[in-house]
Amino acid sequence: MGGVTVAVVQFGGSNCDRDAVRALRQLGVDAERVWHADGLPDDADGIVLPGGFSYGDYLRAGAMAARAPVMEEVRAAADEGIPVIGICNGAQIGSESGLTPGAFTTNASARFQCEPVHLRVERADTPWTAAYDEGDVIEVPIAHGEGRFEIGEDAHTDLVADDRVLFRYCDADGNVTDAANPNGSTDNVAGVLGERETVAVLMPHPERATLPDLGRSTDGAGILTAFA
Amino acid sequence: MTAYTATVTVRLKRGVLDPEAETTQQALERLGFELDGLRSADRFEVDLDAADADEAAARADEMAERLLANPTIHDYDVAVTER
Question: Which of A68, A147, B63, B76 is 20 to 30 A away from residue B12, measured at CA?
């Protein structure tokens, strides 16, 4: 599908928007940055909410961007089945806007953490994980201060029952342990699905693990190939 | 219409980890204070005109629901005074 145009929505304070565009182009996906106030282009066949510090993380990370008018368009597109992924700050925006369940809040360490982590692929039957097998372990970096996934007890039960956990933090062998949980996330959750499997958010950065020249892992490319 | 200040206090639900409060408590202890616990909260003071206190409270409540608090992790309360 060479004609797919992915809109990478840039808010004031986004800073991974260029990285996302570049990673997508590396995969042969036509992607462009879209300033939030300009609205979504009519031909957007996919949407990325990129990482960064939109609106300085005022109030809560993602809280302001989640209430920007463009998010109504994103919600409408998501309801039509257009793939939407929120990465890092984009994940916080996604959860703040109700696109996905739960909340991302201050790391248990109370520190900003920038480090490679391992993720276990919990579902391989979604567009985001079709490149993997269930149980695969991938290495992707995190870079966040507010990435601890929190969700009420009942909502967590529903989340698991509905099989909406997409990735969990794990060790290099795929064991989901407290030691491999970088930020104190409930149930080691690193990424979740929305009501549709075409909507997902995750705190780690697949776009930083896509370009071969960038670092030691290209494991994140499989996530972004959902748009290819 | 009457002028009111609605004070919205947003705090983490009981049981939700508060790493910033823990760090703050540790800093107080390093300063030599003895304390059994510390919780932090955000307080918003909203000035608004309303027909009566109930209306002012209802509007502040909706502000909390839609923006000031995140219901997944927060509880909040609203107090209204004339200003």
Answer: A68
